[in-house]
């Protein structure tokens, strides 16, 4: 693992007041977005004792943290101001996305919206440890 990969941190922030199914869906969809941007997060080929090939789930811890919508908006605003560090990514899950069923429709809808003014259900972050920690502060684990 390279020095850059060693210093990566991943965090998924989710609104704790959502129904359980929405919490799980938000965390899953945001995590897929993060892994698509940073393939080193997952996908290592593994084999079991019977030589069955499977893929590893995650090479990094992925804490699911709780944050209300206002905190999520503040995180988006801070994370996306100026230049992001190399290897960093932000994956939002705005509440309006729940009613959209194709990515093309989501892309089109997003271009007319300001995420810092939208109700957000979750945000995924990956990047240098210090940067992610500066955004997540003292947020608590979702339990």
Automatic annotation (TrEMBL):
<dbReference type="InterPro" id="IPR023476">
    <property type="entry name" value="Pep_tRNA_hydro_II_dom_sf"/>
</dbReference>
<dbReference type="InterPro" id="IPR018988">
    <property type="entry name" value="DUF2000"/>
</dbReference>
<protein>
    <recommendedName>
        <fullName>DUF2000 domain-containing protein</fullName>
    </recommendedName>
</protein>
<dbReference type="Pfam" id="PF09391">
    <property type="entry name" value="DUF2000"/>
</dbReference>
């Amino acid at each position: 693992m390279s020095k850059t990969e060693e210093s990566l941190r991943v965090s998924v922030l989710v609104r704790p007041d959502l129904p359980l199914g929405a919490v799980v869906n938000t965390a899953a969809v945001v995590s897929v977005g993060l892994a698509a941007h940073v393939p080193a997060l997952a996908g290592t080929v593994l084999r079991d004792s019977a030589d069955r090939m499977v893929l590893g789930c995650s090479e990094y811890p992925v804490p699911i943290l709780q944050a209300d919508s206002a905190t999520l908006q503040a995180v988006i605003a801070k994370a996306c101001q100026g230049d992001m560090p190399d290897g960093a990514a932000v994956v939002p899950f705005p509440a309006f996305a729940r009613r959209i069923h194709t990515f093309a429709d989501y892309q089109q809808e997003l271009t007319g919206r300001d995420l810092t003014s939208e109700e957000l259900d979750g945000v995924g972050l990956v990047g240098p440890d210090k940067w992610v920690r500066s955004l997540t502060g003292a947020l608590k684990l979702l339990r």
